[in-house]
Amino acid sequence: MTERIPLPDLSTDKDFGGDAFAPIYATTVTVDGGTASHGRASGRARSGDGALDLDLRMPAELGGDGEGTNPEQLFAAGIAACLHGALSLVARQAALDPAVISVAATVAFGRDPEDGGYLLHVDLQVKWPGIDLAVAAPLVEKADSLCPYTKMALRGTPTRIRLAA
């Protein structure tokens, strides 16, 4: 039998102070190598702590070999995991069991009609078997307001690009 991981304190209250962003956690992933010269990621992605180490490849649908993951899959995993975590938190706060909740993220890559560049579209589908939609809807809305990935997708996120020496 697997022992349950102790849950963190439940907190969605405004238990912070100040007017500026206050980082709680940061990570760095570096992508290097690869042979792509077509604007799509290839190479290897590695996190600073070594927990993430994987090959990036262009999907077969775009002419690649599909023998690795791609940025859209990584983003889909991140946004689904983040919303799932936020929804699990608010479900526990409402004394509901989050074990049956699932979140599927579909990330579509395509052309941006405004500038000819590229754009992502995200579709999130929450499945919560056995719960009344009238009960689930406000909890999903609250989870959406807590999830930094959905905030980023809707509002953008502060981004800085620097050229290192």
Can you walk me through this structure?
There is one protein chain. This protein has helices at 71-93, 133-146, 148-155, and strands spanning 29-32, 43-47, 53-56, 102-111, 118-127. With 165 residues, it is of the alpha+beta class. The chain folds into 2 domains: 26-69, N-terminal domain of TfIIb; 70-156, GMP Synthetase, Chain A, domain 3, CATH 3.30.300.20. Strands 1-2-3 form a 3-stranded antiparallel beta sheet, with no helix packed on it. Strands 4-5 form a two-stranded antiparallel ribbon. The radius of gyration is 19 Å and the shape is globular. The chain starts with 28 loop residues before the first strand and ends in a 10-residue tail after the last helix. The model has no long low-confidence stretch (mean pLDDT 87).
Number of domains: 2
Q: Report the structural category.
A: alpha+beta
What would the principal axes of the Cα set say about the shape?
globular
First-residue to last-residue Cα separation: 52 Å
Spatial order of the strands forming the largest sheet: 1-2-3
Number of helices: 3
| Mean pLDDT figure | 87
Helix content: 25-40%
Radius of gyration: 19 Å
Unreliable residue runs: none
Q: From the coordinates shown, what is the CATH architecture of the largest domain?
A: 2-Layer Sandwich
The first-level CATH class of the largest domain is given as Alpha Beta
